[in-house]
Amino acid sequence: MTMTPLKNDRPIRVMTVDDHPMLREGLAGAIGAQPDMRLVAEAQDGAEALESFRRYLPDVTLMDVRMRTMDGIAALKAIRDEFPAARVVMLSSFGAPAQLLEAAQAGAAGYLLKETLRKDLLDAIRAVHAGGRRFPSALAVQLAEHVADQHLTGRETTVLKLVAEGRSNKRIGSQLDIAEGTVKAHMKSILGKLVASDRTHAVTIAVRRGIIDL
Questions:
Q1: Residue 110: is its pLDDT beyond 80?
Q2: pTM of this prediction exceeds 0.70
Q3: 111 pairs with which residues across the strands?
Q4: What per-residue string of b and e applies to 51-89 under the rule 16 or more CB within 10 Å gives b?
Q5: At 40, which helix (H) or strand (E)?
Q6: 181: exposed, middle or buried (C-beta count within 10 Å: 0-12, 13-18, 19+)?
């Protein structure tokens, strides 16, 4: 759903992107109650967000990380590719360092946990609009602990996801069309990078850090 563009652009022009109507309604209410803010557009997925951004050029975009069709990180990258100055604050229900790192690397100006929106939302919008960045201190600490970690390759992440689904090395090799020995080599690398003692421990660490989802 989109809103009528405003002629007066003095207030902070905000767009919200989330696939849950109730959350969008809550954001709209909070923003609408502020004399220095105006909700100019709403979108329910990443693809719609890109189209709406092109049309309304909001000052600040609030966007959920996990959405159907196109997720928030993909939409953030697409928007920033076209509009490098876009100010986007990512919203998430999870404080996963890997997810936060991916958002920051993609150019997010902020990252807020949904459980803190009532307290942090409005200040974050104003801070980001003013050129600042807003990342929760607790998440920043977790992120700092893992920035130096060696990142898993795309193939290693795929292998670990299949391990999490209970597949054996032989079945993983068959599914990915690689030798079982290659799968074992990937697992050895994964265990080393995550400092994990075994396959189960590696999956637990990866889920906790937001590298994979169950």
A1: yes
A2: no
A3: 90
A4: ebbeebbbbbbbbbbebeebbbbbbbbbbeeeeeebbbb
A5: strand 37-43
A6: exposed
Q: What is the pLDDT of residues 7-39, one digit of tens each?
A: 445 899 999 999 999 999 999 999 999 999 999
CB 88 within 8 A of CB 46: no
CA within 13 Å, CB half, 9: 7
Amino acid in position 75? A
What is the β-pairing status of strands 88-92 and 110-113? parallel
Structure tokens at 111: 């990252």
User: What pLDDT, in 10s, does the model give residues 118-177?
Assistant: 999 999 999 999 988 888 776 666 665 565 556 788 899 999 999 999 999 999 999 999
Do the Cβ atoms of 92 and 65 come closer than 8 Å? yes
Residues 6+ apart with CB under 8 A from 116: 136
Q: Which whole-number Å values give the CA distances from 33 to 39, 108, 143, in the listed order?
A: 10, 25, 34
- For the CA atoms of 156, 159, 161, 164, the dihedral, rounded to the nearest 10 degrees, stands at -120
The H-or-E segment that residue 14 falls in is strand 12-17
